[in-house]
């Protein structure tokens, strides 16, 4: 892994690099997109770029990777790498694009840090970058091989279902009539659409269930909340896509997947549109006859905003030992709680494995409460929709 000499250099320079990573990543993206505008048009999420969240996520992942190598020079943070690799594989990131990123990232480092970037410093951080890049390239290659390649595939929309005022479910079948690969509950697909300005933007959506043989199903929340800008792809899907239309989908990816035996207690916690992978998990548990305790937790604005609520409740009801707790900020019915999710009075069985999906503040609070109740940190798994800002705290 990281050489002894480079580890010493990275350890000494990590504070200076860390405090400058925000400026470095800003200049990196600006330089790369000026030289390669097609990457912003057809690969990177323009909304996240405008909001600055992708810069924060990149800075957080680079700093976390470097810090891990310094503390554990013979080890890799495989959990973090797996999460990134699944996202890259679903987007169709290619190995040659790592060289493009390297060119512009190190130009930005030299521009921001100036004379502090001595040949020794540059060589040490080059080693960090290529350790991370080559590890990701290897994992992404394996993921593509497992799924038969990285090619996009056309899928025809066979049904559009309105779940709430802001959430629509799309059910699709392969337009080529070919077979459909299986997926693991909790995984997502990338969806690529052609927008009015010619851009081909990509977004990831969790598969929200198995609607039938040869079909895929994902649910989309329209993003139009202040101060965030209107979601380009979610708005396009809501406004323009109907039954009979064709979308480009990737194979299923994602590492937030159920990995527990029938005797493992589970806790599935979601908030808002984070319900989508949880419903897929519950459907699988109900169909497979999972017998250990399952605690189902969800928070939303109101019952009317609770997407897939019927499936959420129905799958839980099929389990022999399930506890369901819903929290609503308003209009909570008699069998639900008012306010935000709070596990203070929720029993958590020993040996519980937890899966979380929702806004970061929600997941951080739930994780803290679970650890306080004795759940091992390694048994708390999460999915972030959009750039992973968990590491950018």
Distance between the termini: 26 Å
Proportion of strand residues? 15-25%
Provide a count of the helices.
11
CA-atom Rg in angstroms: 22 Å
User: What general outline do the C-alpha atoms trace?
Assistant: globular
Mean model confidence by pLDDT: 92
Strand line-up in the sheet with most strands: 4-3-6-1-2-5
Give an account of the 3D structure:
This protein is an alpha/beta fold. Helix content is 43%, strand content 19%. The protein has eleven helices and twelve strands. It has helices at residues 4-35, 37-42, 46-51, 53-71, 78-91, 96-113, 119-146, 232-240, 275-288, 309-318, 360-372, and strands at residues 153-162, 167-174, 188-194, 200-206, 216-221, 246-249, 266-271, 294-300, 322-328, 337-338, 353-357, 380-383. It has a six-stranded antiparallel sheet with strand order 4-3-6-1-2-5, with helices on both faces. Strands 10-9-8-7-11-12 form a six-stranded parallel sheet, with helices on both faces. A hairpin with a 5-residue loop joins strand 3 (188-194) and strand 4 (200-206).
Short description:
The protein starts with a helix and ends in a 10-residue tail after the last strand. 43% of the residues lie in helices and 19% in strands.
